[in-house]
Specification:
Chain A is of the alpha+beta class. Helices cover 51% and strands 16% of the residues of chain A. By secondary structure, chain B is an all-alpha fold. Classes of the chains: A alpha+beta, B mainly alpha.
């Protein structure tokens, strides 16, 4: 059973958007992440490196023809951390006695 | 309760998570022209088959294969760029989507066959081509509806989670 645990690394706004996007996909291309989250190439690279260093994401580099293609996905650890973080957020809201319908719940592993 | 952040901040974070999930689900995979281009190719292929001439049939098949590959290339590229996590779809909803898909194909084939047979019996020239055109219009109109239905199923699951 997943236990709630607030994750400072994930909670930073840009990383939260990134991890939430990745949690909803199996793999996501660098260009899709950049355009969807609205980051520059360098800003996205920096955030992805931070998440990769934490063991939360896996980065895959491949070539499609002559064009390099970088993709990322959440690792099992990343997924677990995200799930626990979402539970922690829900707990904070529940603890405050607010009636908030959370728009999401920890996604499941494929 | 975690005392590091305010409940309002937690709610904002959950809202952002939901927004990103919805963004993935609603990502546009099929361009608007895809359905009509595929429909036009199908009609052209059937017209070539109905012509009964070997050369025309050969050209038609080649055109269909090459055309389909060209049309499907951007779609498959977009689909591979960020495929949604299957866990976003409830198994029950996934079955319903599959059932609707199979039913839609059956209806398309049924409408096509019935139209062709009816026109043939009435002595109308080119019955198969006309029937293919009718079925293709249904395909072009119904295709985007099917995609929206699947997205709605995923969003239902997404919205019910929490």
């Amino acid at each position: 059973m997943t236990t709630p645990e607030f994750d400072e690394l994930i909670h930073a706004p840009t990383r939260l958007s990134l991890v939430a996007f990745l949690a909803a996909t199996t793999w996501a291309d660098f260009s899709v992440l950049r355009d969807s989250i609205g980051l520059s190439d360098s800003a996205l690279s920096k955030q992805l490196t931070t998440l990769e260093d934490a063991g939360y994401i896996e980065i895959r580099k491949a070539f499609v023809g002559k064009r390099p293609r970088t993709s990322a996905r959440l690792t099992t650890d990343g997924q677990t951390a995200f799930d626990r973080h979402v539970l922690a957020l829900q707990e904070i809201i529940a603890g405050a006695g607010r009636s908030v319908v959370a728009p999401g719940r920890p996604s499941e592993q494929t | 309760m975690d005392d590091r952040i305010e409940p309002a901040d937690a709610a904002r974070a959950l809202s952002e998570i939901g927004r990103r999930r919805e963004q993935v689900i609603r990502r546009r995979i099929f361009p608007g022209w895809f359905w009509w281009a595929q429909a036009a190719l199908s009609v052209a292929l059937v017209a070539c088959i109905e012509s009964g001439r070997g050369v025309v049939l050969g050209i038609g098949i080649a055109l269909f294969v090459v055309g389909s590959a060209v049309i499907n290339l951007p779609v498959s590229r977009a689909a591979r760029a960020a495929p949604p996590n299957r866990a976003l779809t409830d198994p029950g909803d996934a079955r319903r989507v599959l059932t609707v898909l199979v039913a839609s194909i059956t209806v398309l084939l049924g409408v096509g066959a019935a139209t062709a047979l009816g026109l043939h019996a009435a002595g109308v020239p080119h019955p198969a081509t006309i029937a293919a055109a009718v079925a293709s219009v249904l395909f072009a109109v119904g295709g985007p509806m099917l995609v929206r239905y699947e997205q709605a199923a995923m969003l239902r699951r997404s919205g019910s989670q929490g």
